[in-house]
Amino acid sequence: METGNKTEVMEFVLLGLSQTHEVQLFLFFLFLLFYVIVLPGNILIILTVRRDPQLDSPMYFFLAHLAFLDICYCSITPPKMLADFFSQRKTISSRSCIAQLFFLHFLGGAEIFLLIAMAFDRYVAICKPLHYATLMKKMVCWILVVAAWAGGFTHSLIQVAFVVHLPFCGPNELDNFFCDVTQVIKLACTNTYVLEFIIFVNSGLVILICFILLLLSYGVLVIRLKTGISKGKRKAVSTCITHIIIVFVMFGPAMYIYCRPFCSLPLDKVVAVFHTVVFPLMNPMIYTLRNREILGAMKQILDIIAWLCKD
Predict the structure, then answer these.
(1) Where's the G-protein coupled receptors family 1 profile domain (predicted)?
(2) 170: left (phi over 0), alpha (psi -120 to 50) or beta
(3) 62, 107, 126, 296 — which has fewest CB within 10 A?
(4) What is d(CA 166, CA 198) in angstroms, rounded to the nearest whole number?
């Protein structure tokens, strides 16, 4: 579509991870294998938490929602990435690009707020143990989950509201395998300095503040728990350390992408792969591998499945 002497961009060209056919074929089977192994593991976590009465607690309730969020998050960009490995010309329509951008920030934002809810749950469990059952009722847990989704939706809506009205008149090449605001905004045919600052505040600054607050809260909890040597306290310390690992896994790539000027760097694609493909599916798995209760419950479900398949 032409506007005056300029042509409005109706689609974007994705340059992908590599232009070499052999490399693309290797990456396709590598990511496909990763999905075949890890994705069912996240589904199993959800089924285990829902099935086992012993896991009927806020901590596991939030873990199941974390696994569900990560499954949804990893269903946005990887399917098209895998399909594009076999495409000569990798394109995405402008509307699909905006939709991809919206859902990435919607689910990513919801996950950040869910991690804050999980930190609040651990604070109440450790610092207010006598009031834990009262403060963390089922209704309260649902309110925190809904608030996390609402927070992610609001954050994403702000991003898209600014980007959707930008004029794009060429070039239309994105040096990545998906659409994100940090790259799309650079293709706009207008000065985006103020907009970049607003998006940095909405994404980068929020991510950095949440990261610092989460680390401080878990650090305080670990120091407080270190004063005792009981079995229950050791278990609580292990849980907090697991949460800290997930915080680093989640926020590390996000801070690299959004807490700096919107310019291209050599590691951008590598970090993007870990941020959108690898780490999200690994988050619940990291938690599960350090938790004996849920591992035992998962083993029981796998034994039942194996017995049914055998019959």
Answers:
(1) 41-287
(2) left
(3) 296
(4) 14
